Amino acid sequence: MSALGGKGENLRRLTGAGLRVPAWSAVGLDVLRGFRERSGLDQELAGLLAGLDPDNAWEVSARIAKAFSVTPLDGPALSAIWRAYDEIGQGTVAVRSSGADEDLPNFSFAGQYSSFLGVTGFDAVAEKVRECWASAYSARSLVYRWLHDLPTDRIDLAVLLQELVPSEVSGVMFTADPVSGDRSKALISCVYGLGETLVSGQVDADTLTLDRTSRVVGDAVIGEKAERLDAGPGGTALTPVSSFARERFALTNDQVGELGDLADTVEELFGVPQDVEWALRDGVFHVLQSRPITALREAEGEVRVWDNSNIIESFGEVTAPLTFSFARHAYQRVYRDYVRLLGVPRRDLARMDGVFGEMLGYFDGRVYYNVLNWYKIIRLLPGYALNRRILAAAMGVRETSEELALAQHPIGSPLRERLVRLRVALRFLRMFFTIRRSVASFTDHFHRVYEEFDAIDYETLPGPEVNRALYRLEERLLSKWGGTAVLDNVIMLSYGVLHGLNSRWLPDAPDWFLWEAVKVGDDVESTAPARRLGELAGHLAERAGLAEEVRERPAGELWEWLRTAEGEDARWLRAELDGFLAAFGYRSANELKLEEPDLHDDPSLLMSMLKDALLLTGSVQALREEHDADAYLREHLSGPKLFVYDKVRGKVREALRERERVRFARTRAFGMARRMFKAIGRDLESVGALGDRRDVFFLKLEEIRAAYAGTMNHRELRPLAGLRRTQQAKQRLMPAPPPRFLTRGSVYWGAQAPDPAPAGEEGADVLRGTPCSPGVVTARARVVDSPRDVGGGVLVAYRTDPGWVGALSSAAALLIERGSPLTHVAIVARELGVPTVVQIPGLTGRIEDGMTLTVDGGTGVVRIEKEDG
Q1: Which of 757, 784, 791, 796 is deepest in the core (most CB within 10 A)?
Q2: How far is CA 817 from CA 103, 822, 835, in A?
Q3: CB 157 within 8 A of CB 97
Q4: Average pLDDT for 292-302
Q5: Do residues 97 and 110 touch, judged by C-beta distance below 8 A?
Q6: CA–CA separation, 687 vs 787, rounded Å?
Q7: Cα–Cα dist 797/633, whole Å
Q8: In the predicted model, is pLDDT for residue 260 greater than 90?
Q9: Which of 853, 800, 728, 839 is nearest to 364 (CA)?
Q10: CA 536/CA 321 separation, integer angstroms
């Protein structure tokens, strides 16, 4: 690493290439190192940095800044600063930090170190150098280093002194479009005076794009530029800009062309797109500094679209490596088998292996759909254009552009693809009309296998036997699961036809009608836990004394109290809850996340749901509008139209009902796998391969199998689990990736370009989403991230998962920022009569706990009511 730091090394190269760079000098990295050692700051900083984490970073940073401020600069440090200041003429300068690891390709440290403009006189310069040194330990810098596994004990920082150019115009130029990654476009922003007002956002700047080949200006916006910053005797000062100057571009066309030439020169020098700061004085451009554009999207490479809209219901927030690898493996096997059953020949199946293995993505611990790989599968089926639209509705994702969608080809040769699709269409039609019988056969098989494996006490088995049992479970279930995957495509096709009939025959149907028309009935297996809990709460309410105890005791204490409580009522409730756990104890708040404790592990969740259900027992649920889809149909359709509509509607309802049966089986299968992995964790802990049995969830499925198969040394497991435990702790503190984004080329090393959906907001007090379950409710908002303590209000959540079903019995209404109308929770909410709206952009950012909301589940409108006074 250069003794000049990142910025300084770049300035050295710019100067050596003959570009106009204002006179500059450097207080090198060694000066700070020597000062820390001689003054004893090294030992003091080491003590302050011990145990650093994001929670204490601000306090640590403040104490370090104080330590620097009270430690006098010694002779060697002052001499080095004097030499640097004298070298450039002792005039007015900019004092800039230049970190040793700053402006690297993947670590920019942008805005984390201090810089100062308009500094005059040695004493002032020396003080600003000391402040720059202290800024190496700013809270933002320390957190950034902690999150990216960079050292915090010895941070090297140089300080640059640069002649301050009294510029007429200053600005920043990206030699490539930082959003699209387009290397043929430059992005230029500029303001009058010094550029600090642009960098800080204090002044609204001019912005334009420049075609670097033709030098033609593309999009251009004239900023307000109301003020300008200039250097004066006492530092810098803001002054107003004349109205004439504000209403015109700060640069002429010729000057913009000169910047295009400068972009070519600087980028050629460094070999990669650059972020260039420049100043214009007396018609001449000066380069103040240049750095690589970090996280720039690759211009070439495969485009991938990632979206978590629907899958966040199953794998919300940060997900353990074992859960992701297990889910990825299951998706791969199930969908490969499904495509095989559709009649795709073996050699074409082999070509698609990459598609099956990459249907999910994993970003900072969050799980995403690889959307275009799903497109490749549905392209095999009849009605690709229709299926894309319905897939978007069913998965809650926005439909991808036509151009990108049409470019997805699962099989290379167009002619062969047409032949394969014809064969698939014939197989699909047979599966379409026999789906009910197929699902019945599968669920019968599933229940037999489940009962067999559920009877095993895995905690008493040796680890290798548990591992073999996991293999057997996979072979007996996943090998049969592929045929049920057709359900999603049956729903897509039949729902698409129904939607078309609605548009043609019932164009004026109210918003509630479509979802009410396809209610699957009260016999959906997945509603059983909520209904049973509601019934239990009703009987509990009749036992006044016990009910009062349940209401008053905290959920965390209630279970332990109940285990030893005396009396007939307590014994009755224990028996009822034991029966509930026997039937549904495999369920959890995040049911498909293997690392989550189930109701057996954490009965307090069950106690919380029971308290919520009891709260509403005997009270009148908020008014629910009565909607009769059958009556509406018979009023508006008759004869052949009614017959056809009922047939298509029946197919949608049948497919939805059968899919819920399969999903309920999936929940049970994951619950069984959770038991097995917990037993494997116990075994690996007992032989010293893991420090704690729960560390098994920080391993991947293939690593566990390799350890038992002898193809991976078991001594590797403990450090791997420790590394991932640390990574996951950091992932929880990092901002989550966007709900939807695109990558081009390298997935992890390239940039993630957000691809947000259009805003759905209608006004300051009104939000709109997708209606799911009709009914109008006015109640207090309960903004929650887990299905606890709903207490009869409007449940407001960023996402949900099947484990939230138990909370629906005590919710007045349900609002979900993500999700889709066809998710598990949305379907159950309709069956339970809970007004529901999903896909509400910005919901959890707008709604605060305790707000009064009016929810119209039939139109998707949510209104924030004004409070009296």
Answers
A1: 796
A2: 37, 14, 15
A3: yes
A4: 69
A5: no
A6: 37
A7: 34
A8: yes
A9: 728
A10: 37
Backbone torsions φ then ψ of 366, nearest 5 degrees: -100, 145
Mean pLDDT of the chain: 85
What is the pLDDT at residue 622? 41
User: Mean per-residue pLDDT for 605-620?
Assistant: 75
Half-sphere exposure of 486 (CA within 13 A, CB side): 30
* The one-letter amino acid at 22: P
CA distance 598 to 586: 5
758 pLDDT band (50/70/90 cuts)?
A: very low
Q: Which residue has the tokens 């379907």?
A: 827
* Mean pLDDT, residues 461-481 taken together: 93
Q: Where are the beta strands (DSSP E) in 364-454?
A: 366-370
Provide φ and ψ at 814, rounded to 5°. -135, 125
Q: Is the pLDDT of residue 148 over 80?
A: no
| Assigned token pair, 781 | 């908002």
Residues of the chain with pLDDT > 90, as a percent, come to 43
Element (H, E) at 854: strand 852-856
- Taking the C-alpha atoms of residue 334 and residue 349, their distance in angstroms, rounded to an integer, is 13
Contacts of 680 (CB under 8 A, 6+ apart): 463, 466, 467, 470, 696, 704
Query: Which pTM was predicted?
Result: 0.71
pLDDT tens sequence across 110-119: 557 888 988 9
| pLDDT tens column, 645-686 | 999 998 888 888 888 889 889 988 999 999 999 999 999 999
* Burial class of residue 618, CB neighbours in 10 A (0-12, 13-18, 19+): exposed
| CA 695 – CA 707 distance, rounded (Å) | 15
Q: Give CA–CA dist 617/542, Å, rounded.
A: 10
Q: How far apart are CA 636 and CA 648, in angstroms?
A: 16
Joined tokens for residue 348: 């074409």
List Cβ neighbours of 368 (8 Å cut-off, separation of 6 or more). Answer: 306, 307, 308, 311, 360, 361, 362, 737
Count other Cβ atoms within 10 Å, centred on residue 532: 17
pLDDT at 716: 94
